Amino acid sequence: MLAPVLPLLPVVVVVVASMLTGAKLATVTLVLLGFLVAVILVSTLFARLDQLVLSRTLEHRVVERTLAIRTHAKWFRALVQNSSDVITIVDPSGTIRYQTPSAARVLGYDPAAMVGRRFGALLRPHDADRLEAVLVDAALRPRSSQSVEFAMMHSDGRWCETETVVTSLVD
Which residues touch 164 (CB under 8 Å, ≥6 apart)? Predict the structure, then answer.
């Protein structure tokens, strides 16, 4: 709080000392002291204005970025929620963590009810073993993608042939 005023302290000391001692300051000294005070005040004013502009610029950028993130999140949500493809997120152990609403249309399962179930339970035993191997491989290779074909059980008991792309999002 005192930082902008602190450089003025020597000027005040000189003026007060001259008044107490009764010494008269030369006109040139008074002009220089006045100029020094003006320069300090103007530089302080410019620094404050610069801080204000910087603060408003940063606030504006934060608002823009927040809006962009929200917009992209809405686009992504609309894309995923309305996709005809079933998108399922599983953890490295194969447990379903999220499934798009299209799972109800394609496989007959309520996506919310699938969360927490093992994805392999929807597959034939030998396909479940292949999926487990693919998930292990995906966990070892972050950002990798593999395509696998296997049959998934529909809620009515019939088998649906699928092409599944496993993309590793493990960091």
Answer: 131, 147, 148, 149, 150
